[in-house]
What we know:
Shape: elongated
Radius of gyration: 25 Å
Order of helices and strands: HEEEEEEEEHHHEEHEHEHEHEEH
Helix content: 25-40%
Number of domains: 2
Strand order of the largest sheet: 6-5-2-3-4-1-7-8
Number of helices: 9
Largest sheet: 8 strands, mixed
Amino acid sequence: MHHVLSDKLYIAIIFTLLALTSCGGRKGELRIKGEIKGLNNADLTIFSRDGVIQGIDTLHVRQGKIDWQCPYDKENGSLTIVYPTFSTLTVFGSSGDVIILEGESKQLNSTKVSGNEHNEAYTRLRLQIESAKAEEKDSLKKDFIKQNPESPVSRMLQLEELASQEPFSLKNGEEIPEFSLVTRKGDTITNDSIKGKYALFAFWANWRGKTTQVNTCIRRLRRQVRQPLVCISYNMDVNDNILGYIERTDTITWHSYCDQKAFLSDLPTQLGVRDLPLFILTDTCSRIIAVGNDWNKDIEPIVKDELIPASRESSEKQH
């Protein structure tokens, strides 16, 4: 017996399929759409601390409407949208997601974000925090992290907390704390392995402006110094693909490390790293002899005084 679908059932199936396909995006892409009422024509900045998009992009708003998309293969990545008021909104997405924004220009902090469970959970938390008393706000965040330890929202809240803290004061003469790093090439670097050598720890991330120039500084240092020297490029991104690309294009031949934990990584946590780039130079006894964010101001003068003269003297003895 042949079964023939009725016209009504056929049409119902077609509409169901269309509804299912229209509410999701295409794999390998991320889309952000929606409306911010009252924000007629504006260009918003969008970037990713996770490095899931390269550099900074522009999210165009026309007559309040938003429709932006980009190649995206990350699972549970985050993007930050910067409004014209310089306030920010973080959204979370995976490959194939369509993120929906609904808000008003007069109340940007109350913008609702949907499209997946993480955005909806963060929206609920933001609205709770906005209406809570000052003394309750911190507890709301801590409770969320405790109840959702694996959520990308919790990770973002932890990073914000770290960034808001005062950095530790690293002083010359202090020893670098105990550490053990397995580099991307499989080498193990420890306190013992750098003893008897000068060592440079360079903390940087692709998402943090000009910190990729760190590698240029390291390359120049390696050319200048003939003393036993260990250089460690400590990357604070969470996207391994981007780091691999940078290593190839910058021809990084020295030690490169990344555990994709950003500011939650063990050594940066011990050292109190809060801003990037950060350079730490240690002597042959693993004591800090220079530390700072500005290579030219904080590190290079010490290199010239401590390392280069010794290198020249050693070279002259050889001749």
